[in-house]
Amino acid sequence: MQKITIAIDGFSSTGKSTLAKQLAKALGYIYVDTGAMYRAITLFAMRNKFVGVEKENINALIKLLPKAKLKFVFNEQLGFAEMYLNGENVEKEIRSIEVSNQVSRVATIEEVRHKLVDMQKEMGKEKGIVMDGRDIGTVVFPDAELKIFMTASPETRAYRRYKELLDKGDKVTYKEVLKNIQNRDYVDSHREFSPLRRAEDAIEFDNSDMGMEEQFDRIYNHSLRVI
Ligand code: C5P
């Protein structure tokens, strides 16, 4: 069977990564969560106190970028890859609300995007990959054989994310999560470099009223028709 590239883009908390992970597993493909890469660079910036919007902070972060070494390491027990920053497993820290509140700003920096897009292109050279993010179908793999653009209402997404964070023991309020999602939607779709938008040839998929199983079945069957 020929291997293809599958690009999954969409707004925050649309369930992209859950679906992409399941799809990659079923097809025997590699899964790459590009959001984790932007989150790890944000954590790196926060640890070095370079997160402000001021030009000095941005320039200092750009200068220090070569020192941020990112790596995905597959965890056999969990069945997916975890993000390492300079040799340290940062999977938990990069999902915190503090990082979520800063990540979209860091993701507007052109040099950060170049560094990460180059790494992503390299990872997908051999195809057989499912990658999720905001610019995968438009910038990283404009020639991907299958492109999916996922949407759901901000309230539905905030509720899902809120429940997820509560389950993990994070003390957050629904209002705080909704605000974070709305802010990220705005920044992600209005930034100058590779803003979030649906690629013309992407299939739009609104999952506001759809369970995970139905979503997976539909997309899996569709991908088999493309392969
Ligand atoms: O996918 P996730 O919500 O973890 O992504 C976190 C943030 O990283 C997004 O809100 C966006 O600002 C940024 N991002 C991006 N391009 C990608 C993936 C994520 O700008 N390909």
Automatic annotation (TrEMBL):
Its EC number is 2.7.4.25. It is an enzyme of class 2 (transferase). GO terms for molecular function: kinase activity. It is found in: Cytoplasm. CDD domains: CMPK. Keywords: ATP-binding, Cytoplasm, Kinase, Nucleotide-binding, Transferase. The keyword Transit peptide does not apply. InterPro entries: Cytidylate_kin (IPR003136), Cytidylate_kinase_dom (IPR011994), P-loop_NTPase (IPR027417). ATP binds at residues 10-18. Its main location: cytoplasm. It catalyses: CMP + ATP = CDP + ADP; dCMP + ATP = dCDP + ADP. The keyword DNA damage does not apply. Residues 6-221 form the Cytidylate kinase domain. Belongs to the cytidylate kinase family. Type 1 subfamily. This is Cytidylate kinase. It comes from Sediminicola luteus. The gene is cmk.
